[in-house]
Amino acid sequence: MIFQEPDIGAMIFHHTGDSKVVELPFGLGEWHLPGPWYIGNLDVSPTKHVVFMILAAFLVFVTLWYGGRQVAKRHREGRGPRGLGAAVEALVLFVRNDIAVANIGHGGEKFSPYILTLFFFILYCNLLGLLPWGAAATGNLAVTAALALTAFVTIEVSGFLALGPKGYLKTIVMVPPGMTGFGAVIMAAIMTPVELVGKIVKPFALTLRLFANMTAGHFVILVLLGLIFVFGAAPPVIRYGVAVGAVALTLFMMMLELLVAFLQAYIFALLTSVFFGLMRHEH
Amino acid sequence: MHNLLMLLQASPEAALNNNALLGAGIGMGLAIIGAGLGIGRIGGQAVEAIARQPEASADIRGAMILTAALVEGATLAALVFALLFKLVK
User: Fold this and answer.
1) A22-31, A196-205, A222-231: least confident range
2) pTM
3) What residues in A contact B4, CB-CB < 8 Å?
4) Residue ranges of the domains in chain A?
5) Domains identified in chain B and CATH numbers
6) How crowded is residue A253: how many other Cβ atoms within 10 Å of its Cβ?
7) Which residue on chain B is closest to A214 by alpha carbon?
8) Lowest mean pLDDT segment, chosen from A118-122, A241-245, B72-76
9) Beta bridge partners of A32
10) Closest chain B residue to A229, measured at CA
11) CB contact B20 to A (< 8 Å)
12) ipTM of the complex
C-alpha cells in the first residue's frame, strides 16, 4: 500500500512559507535570526524572506552599479560595452524603451527609474528562489502586497499631479461626456463605486499574480519531488521509475521557472507602466 | 474516499474536512478550464495574426502577453482562494 509518510503537504508549506531560520548552504547549518523585535504590538523581527530581500537589493545594487560604471567608462572611451555591462545595458534599454516609455507615453522617462527598480528587484527575488537553500521573497503575500501598494500610491499621486485636482476627481466620479442634469447624477452614482473598485483591483491583481505565480512554481517542483517519497514503499521498479521521472520533470519545471522569473518581473513592470499610462491620460 | 484523500495528500486531521478539499479541487479545475480556454484563444489568435502580418509581430506579442497576464491574474486569484480550503482546517 502506497502511503503518505512523510506528510508532503506540510513539507511543501514549510518550504514555501516564511520562517525565522535561514538554512545556510554547504553544511554550515542554520542561522537563527534575532528577535522577536516589537514596535508597539507589531512584530518587526527579521525573517528568511527579509534576509533574501536584502540580499536581492544588494545584488541589484552591485550588478547595476558595476554595469552602469563600465558602460559609462567604455562609452567615454568611444567603445561599446561588453560582458556584464552589455547585458545590463540591454536589459535597462529594453525596460526603459519597451516597457516604461512605450506604455506610459510622454513623460515616461521620468518614471523609468521606478519601473527599472521594480523590474530588477523582482527579477532578483525570483531568481534567488531558484537557488538551492534559497527562498523566493516574492512568494510571500506581504512582499508582493507591499510592492503593489507602492505602485498604487505612485500611480495615484502621479495621476493627481498630472491631471490636477479636478481631473483627478473625474477619474473617481465618472460622468460620460455630453450627459447633463439628472442623467449625469444617476450615471455618477452608478459609476463611482465601479471606478473605486477598479482602482483597488489593480494593486490587488498585481499582488496576487506575482505571489501565486512564484508559489505555484515552487509547489509544482516540490510536489514532483514529493512523489518520490509518496512511492517510497512501492516495489523497486516503480520506485526507481518514479524517481527518474520526477527528477526529469523537475528539471523541466526548473527551466520553466527560469522563464517565469523573467516573465513575472516583466509583467509586473509592464502592468505598472500600463496603469501609469491609463491614469495619466485619463482626460 | 480514502484513495482520493491519498491523492490529495491530506493529513489525517484534514481528512475530517474532506468535503472542503474536494470543493477546492473542483474549484481549481473549473478555474483552469476557463484560463485554458482564454489563454489558448489569445495564443491561437496571436499566432494567426503574426502569420498574416509578420511585420507586426512585436506589437502583437506585447498585446498577447498583456492580455494573457490579465486572464492569468483572475485565474490565480481563484486558485489562491481554492488553496484557502486546504489551509483553513
Assistant:
1) A22-31
2) 0.85
3) none
4) 8-280
5) 30-89 (1.20.20.10)
6) 19
7) B76
8) B72-76
9) A21
10) B9
11) no
12) 0.70
